[in-house]
Amino acid sequence: NKDVPDEVINVIESSSFMITLFTDSDEFNVLNDIEKENAQTVLGDLVASIFVSNIDNENFYPKLIATFHDILLALKRDETKEYFTSIAPVLEAFFNFLLFKEVIDKNEHISILDTISQHKDSFEATFDQIANLENEDEFEEDEEEYDEEHEEFLDSLDELYIEFKDSEYYDVLSPEHKKLSEDIIFNFADII
Asked: Is 138's pLDDT higher than 50?
């Protein structure tokens, strides 16, 4: 089983908590209905992608966003075009919310929005790229090896969720937000 560093667990726990708060915010309400429908999946996938990326703490979020396209291209095969066109607006709204909550500072916020802007077109083009790759049969994999690796990943997600449920972050959530946190965890598994 993959050992998950404490700092990654902390980022995931705090991100999951902030995602639940985000869904009740003014920043969330500026999104259109399609973006709102996709918001939890997009943000859950972004947080889940921490597991498959190796990013140091310096400029963490801009680096994560910059690699998010490649991660989506590798892992997302069945989302709608609306999901991919929702990525940039959802990320912008979420990081605006984090700035408002003073989780990130203004300089980091500017860097994050710049990174989102730079990758907006590639996020939107991912749907077509995946369709082209599928047509070219480039997603053929050894199913047995794939299943074993991803089963280990799912096990680590289960362990992480148990840790989250035992944390002070989970205790302060309302029943509705506790349900949302479960949905986010299930979204993690959907990227596999």
From this structure: no
